[in-house]
Amino acid sequence: MVSPGGTFALGFFNIKEDSMRSYLGIWYKEVVPMTVVWVANRNHPLNDSSGLLKITDKGLLLLLNNNNSIFWSSNSSSNLTQQPVALLLDTGNLIVNTSNKDSEYTLWQSFDYPFDTLLPGMKLGSDLTSGLTRNLKSQNSPGDPSKGNYTFQLDIVGYPQLCIRNGESISYCSGSWNGLRFGGIPQLKQNTIYHYYFVYRKEEIYYTFELLNSSVYSRFVLSADGIMTRYVWSVENQSWTPYLKLPNDFCDDYARCGPYGKCNEDNSPPCECLNGTVPKVPEEWNHTNWSNGCTRTNPLSCNGDGFKKFTGLKLPDTHRTSWLNNSMSLDKCAKLCMNNCSCMAYAALDIIKEAAGGCLMWYGELINIRVLSDPQQDFYVRMSKKDSDEEEKLEGKSGIPKMQIIVFSSVLVIVIMILCISLILYKRKKNQKNYRNMRGNTEENQEEELDLPYFDMATLISAANNFSTNNILGKGGFGAVYKGVLKDGREIAVKRLSENSRQGLQEFKSEVMHVVKLQHRNLVRLLGCCIQGEERILVYEFMPNKSLDYFIFDEERGKLLDWPKRFVIIIGIARGLLYLHQDSRHRIVHRDLKAGNVLLDDEMNAKISDFGLARSLAGNENEANTATVVGTYGYLSPEYLIDGIFSTKSDVYSFGVLVLEIVTGKRNRGFNNENHRFNLLGHVWTLFIDGKCSEIVDGSIRDDDESNLSGIVRAIHVGLLCVQRSAEDRPSMSYALMMLSSEWTLPQPKMPGFFVERDPVGETSASRNTVVSVNEVTISVLHPR
Ligand SMILES: *[C@@H]1O[C@H](CO)[C@@H](O)[C@H](O)[C@H]1NC(C)=O
Ligand SMILES: *[C@@H]1O[C@H](CO)[C@@H](O)[C@H](O)[C@H]1NC(C)=O
Ligand SMILES: *[C@@H]1O[C@H](CO)[C@@H](O)[C@H](O)[C@H]1NC(C)=O
Ligand SMILES: *[C@@H]1O[C@H](CO)[C@@H](O)[C@H](O)[C@H]1NC(C)=O
User: Fold this and answer.
1) How many angstroms separate the alpha carbon of residue 307 from the centre of ligand 3?
2) 234 lines ligand 2 (CB under 6 A)
3) Which residue, among 46, 73, 42, 217, has the nearest Cα to 137 in the 3D structure?
4) Is 592 an annotated catalytic residue?
């Protein structure tokens, strides 16, 4: 029996011409040597070459020999009256169906009773309503298909992960699913051969994969010695090429370094204790017996404990005692863990969702930790106050106390020297300051003023040609920008802040102070400021190539930016924004990201400008509320425009709009289409859902090269993920950046924040009150919740 597409065949076969043992199985029809993917009677071979597969009226499959004794049966039955039929599908699934015109009902399928091979479309895992569990069972030995010792399963005790068991004991576990993949398999990436899925629902939990091109064969097999290998059939070489292996190395073996030990394949010996812990039994540990692992240097005292963050590691095993909640924030998770003395560690569950990424907690010893190249997931281990992050600064890297003393004393000497030098410098500067004060400069707050770079008003007036209208480079929400040339020939951009954006003197100075310190290649540099009377002026480096809107919204100039250039610009913006959100000391929300605020340097690199008066969020604050919404229509996220709540996610929204504008060459605001009243976001989204988003790509990048299309579609996809209505659904900038530069399968975007826009109003900054009243006529959302 051959499947309809000719991929698989079902029949009787013998192993190695041994006619005394014959099996009923399924194999790839075209592949030589014969590759069997499923065997019915693995434990009961027919003892002669004649066998009969029979289907009963009730839909039971029976495997009989000459004497009508049963060697295997399918374990299916029904009371249905239709005549059941058995079919071999082209997926390699043997099914028993009752089919009449009205209904089709599968009574039984071989995919529910796997052999040692996971085929595309098979579900590895559990059906929680029927109680059916699908595991792979190894062969006893290469020539003997009977059940061997090893099992490959989706372990659903704790947060699900793939595990290999030898009998009852675990020999390998992949680490839990983290939203992208199983945490300990960095090699598991979306690729050009297959897509993989992890489904976690009330009714069922499973892992599965599907082929992107059904004529490229791939199978995932558990060998008789307990190794899972994915093979891909190479037509050229007529052989199976190994693609991924589990376990992959020494450190993949389960709990290799014992509790609190971490395994590093590149080290010799490979096992090390986590920082803050020491070998439990040093003699054993030194003789390469790591099974007892490590123990904390300082004992826990419950109420006085803290946490230490670990990065670059595979998360501890969740199989034993872990607890999870997939909607809790990380902060809440930390508190919960802190308040329960038996909680030993916590982590975010899902690296995609970040802020609401769920909570995973461990009770008990932490095992199966290893160093990984690309784990992307941190965890926090309970440590005594002494060993936790608050006290980390003095901790030397090596565990030898003598070293620490030497390091410590040299640090002490250096610190004393630095103190002396600063004291001298400070006294000198203080003298200078007194001198300045004598000249009539009467600012308070001495320390701050000392290193704030000031420009003289007279210098700026002459540089900017008396702020002539000819020198105006642009006008933004915060004021007008003039081009200036300093006496030494340096070109600068001078921003004269408008009255609305004026703040208190101290507030202004402290903001300038910290913005001056922000340095990143994708941010325009603030050189200094000028304060005179009511004037507040900021001085930036000058960007010769104007701003992004000058190019992308113009048909002719748009041609100067081909797709590779645009992609570099998108990545540049993402990096700059990420720096503001994450890497700089203060977490900064830009609040007015738009094409006009992305400047281009002489090599067309993107530089974000106008973050000068962006609000910074306090260290661990995630969102803040403002009475004044500043920003630009078309780029404002719903929660910011309507409720005045801004967060890094409102910047992500603006970034998404910007990406879609860069790809389409159209402004979100004022976009119109004869067929509907959607704005650009709504228009792109509907085309995307219909799989037609290439239609909207800007003409000047669409023609240049067909091979760019997949990258362009990916950018649209990421853009749509960034403009999703709910801030929680939007990715963080770091994740958006990763998605842009990877080949992962991306989640399906939900509906964008704003879908329809009528009666466009000019771009302005506006106070919250005006926004709210204007809002009623300008913006309506298709499906308000
Ligand atoms: C057949 O079904 C019965 C009852 O549903 C179950 O107990 C038994 O384990 C099944 N046998 C096989 C081989 O699946
Ligand atoms: C699928 O793979 C076959 C064989 O490698 C190839 O000839 C064919 O073009 C591929 N189809 C697609 C849609 O990529
Ligand atoms: C999970 O966390 C959310 C948010 O903190 C909470 O509302 C919910 O009750 C929690 N669920 C469980 C089962 O603890
Ligand atoms: C701490 O967590 C354990 C394990 O979930 C639980 O049994 C215990 O009740 C918790 N204790 C407190 C004080 O919440």
Assistant:
1) 22
2) no
3) 42
4) yes
